[in-house]
Predict the structure.
Amino acid sequence: MQNKGLIKFFAILFALVSIYQLSFTFVSNKVKSDAKTFANGNPDKEIKYLDSIGKESVFSLGFTDFTFNEVKDKQINKGLDLEGGINVILQISVKDVLKGLSNNSKNPVFNKSLADATANQKGNQTYIDAFFEAFETNSKGTVKLASPDIFANRNLQGEGGIDFQMTDAQAQKVIRKKVDESVDSAFGVLRKRIDKFGVTQPNIQKLGESGRILVELPGAKDVDRIKKLLQSTAQLEFWETYKIDEVGNFLMAANEALKKTEINKVETKTTPKDSISALLTTGKDSASTKKGNNPILDKIIGQGGGPILGLFSPKDTATVGGYLRRADIRVLLAADQRYAKFVWGKPTTIKDEKGKDIEAVELYALKGNKNNASSMSGGVVTDAQDSFDQMNKPAVSMSMSGAGARKWEELTRKVALTKGAIAIVLDNVVYSAPNVNEAISGGNSIISGNFTLLETADLANVLRAGKLPAAADIIQSEVVGPSLGQEAIDNGTNSALLGLLIVSLWMMVYYGKAGWYANIALAVNLLFLFGILASIGAVLTLPGIAGIVLTMGTAVDANIIIYERAKEELRAGKTLQEAISASYSWKGAMRSIVDANVTHVLTGAVLFIFGSGPIKGFATTLLIGIVTSLFTSIFIARIFLDWSASKNSTISFVTGFSKNMFTNFNYDFLGAKKFTYAFSTIVTIVSVVSLCTNGLDQGVDFVGGRTFQVRFEKTVEPEVIKEDLVKVFGTVEAKVFGNDNQLKITTKFKVEENGSKADEEINKLLFDNLKQHYSAGMTYEKFVNAYDGKKLGILQASKVGPTVAEDIKTNAYWAVLGAMAIVFLYLMISFRKWQYSLGAIAAIAHDVIFVLGIYSLCYKFMPFGMEIDQHFIAAILTVIGYSMNDTVIVFDRVREYLGGKAKGNFNSIVNQSINSTMSRTINTSLTMILVLLIMFVFGGESIRGFIFAMLVGIVVGTYSSLFIATPVLCDTISEAEHKRIEEEHNA
């Protein structure tokens, strides 16, 4: 080997760099462990500890020191499935942005196009593209985007804006730019909020040009709080309010009018003797206010006063709000009140008649106008801090700009004259409505109310960060508890160590001393792999650990190919050094290794491009592993082999156990094609029929929905849980997930509603209907939120909206088809004959259909999950890669034999070539199958279905490369070519 010294130098250098990079991970883990010990289970205390030492030196190399913040930035980051935490994808409402840019245009073509874009948006199509497409269809050239009543308005005039002379194509460029600016603005606002939230190593990134933003908060635990923080648009407004006596007559008239349409729907309940009930019953016959006869009045559960019209149960707010928005009810408002806006306050706790705490929501009436604009917007707020009010209760203090302070003074002076109140409204919710007795100067004010310390901290945070330009909906989310993450780490580590042990033992048993050299190369490979992961800031996920274990299985593949070639050269009478040199040559093993790994890299690249989250982590690990495996197999192992040869050491690449294995193997593969074609045809037909009739168990990734992994105290029956939940969720699926006391619960209930309120409502419904299966100590907070040591309740939760599901499904199709197309083209270029490509694609298609068929036939009765989701697509692409790897090795040997001097007819020459690869094929497949079996047994429930797909795929891929790919290749080569080859070989 030339330049041996240079290779040694770089190997040592890479090893030192890898150790240096990994040292930060070890130090960071040590500091975090100390923080956990110090906090003793208190997550807030743990975060404060880590924040307090952020700028302190925790790692010294003698010549330089590193702070904890610097150390954690350089460590290998763990994904949510290992660390625990929350991962969400937010969709910035491009529809709302377009409405704002159009100044809320009333143009019918514009509004129909918005509605059509929402309804007809295709998988992977951005909303703005769908809107432009719908606008072109609806306008038919009669209306332009640059019309004065659409986008050529005051908001978009001026330099870089839109004028009415622009074509639609020109206007589209400007609109796209403005939408991108809005998404960038939202990104900045969210980053400010997250930076102040207090989690370590938050990650936020824009996802292409889709208007979507990925937010990862490792270690975050308070689910409902975080979702509210992320989705709050922070639209702060100040409104004048009506007093109860000013709208009392309207409420009375509305109550009377509703009796005609709603009286039979109203439930009978006790009416509290509050100010509204007194107002509405003054001078009225008692029969008119009989219990159960008042659609609005009977829903009041608490006394109002001043700007508060009354308190209602949260479950009645939608009904009462619907009444007050009805056109036939609003006509009852006085002429000067026709623009009144009825809104709800922040939920509070009151005592019922029995002294029990109940939740209530206050109703307010705001003084609106024809533009539905507030008296003053929150854009004047320059700073906000969590503080305390005069009663020493948590509050938020605000500071305003100079212009804002003057406007605030004018507004408070005006309201003080009537002894009225100003409602402080955030995102259409009244947080407080203090009475104003005198003008407030200086621009400072306080938002007080029924707050906790965390609520005031979050409210101050969102006000400081500013408002979002449009609504941010959570369209995909995943919540993983830290305990579940630790289980995943333990399972992954155990399976990795056991896999490493099995592979190492097999290489020693089969190849002897050469096997030891391969194991040393494997150890160096793992060092390089982890070092690169650390240096590029990669995120390690559970599928990523699976990728590492698979890398161990394939890392020895190149060594196996080289060693098998070296054995052939030794049998041909060459010396050890000659055999080593020949096996490492292009005509030896290198051509096969390169072809096999290029196809593997191509499928891994497709997986990286189309994958997301943990799947991208799997692809990253796999791609890096391929590169490091090639380097260590080709160079590191070679260094030891050359060293042994120079010392005249005996290396035979065999042991007493493996000496005669496959040496005289002679099977007629092409002669068996009638049987294998028939078998594969039957399997393909059965698979296709099953796919058409039985279908597949599509996970929420593909169909949308909500999934909860719930652990109970004792064994539960899935059917019992399903009956409990069907009453509230409608369609529900519940099945055992791992242990008998753990279920995976899936529902599509309100999956299209993206607000944090919907998520919180579903969490509460789930808890209310499952709490009977827990002891009395289980609370809602313990059931929903994550915390260290959590063993019961929701351990993992995910949600995928229908739009995201459609995108994922589209990406999956393109990923599989793209991988097959790329491989076809590469093989056609490399082998220069389309027959090789056709044989390979036939084998791949056979493998994919076989795996899909197994999943279709078995998913209903297998004791583990067999869902078709992103993990399954990753498994399919991995199967394609390994199937191609096997096929290319066989094809390389077929090409070599067909171009060589082997005697016999065409079929016998091909059979000789296949038989000569059997040792490599069986060895590689066996090590892969052993590793996958270990992961299947010990890797954990969450990746069992993923591993099973690869396990089936590897077995089927090995079969297809021998019995499908090669026969198809031979059958498509013309008879004339057969005769030509036979004549050349037997001349």
User: Anything to note?
Assistant: The longest strand covers residues 357-366.
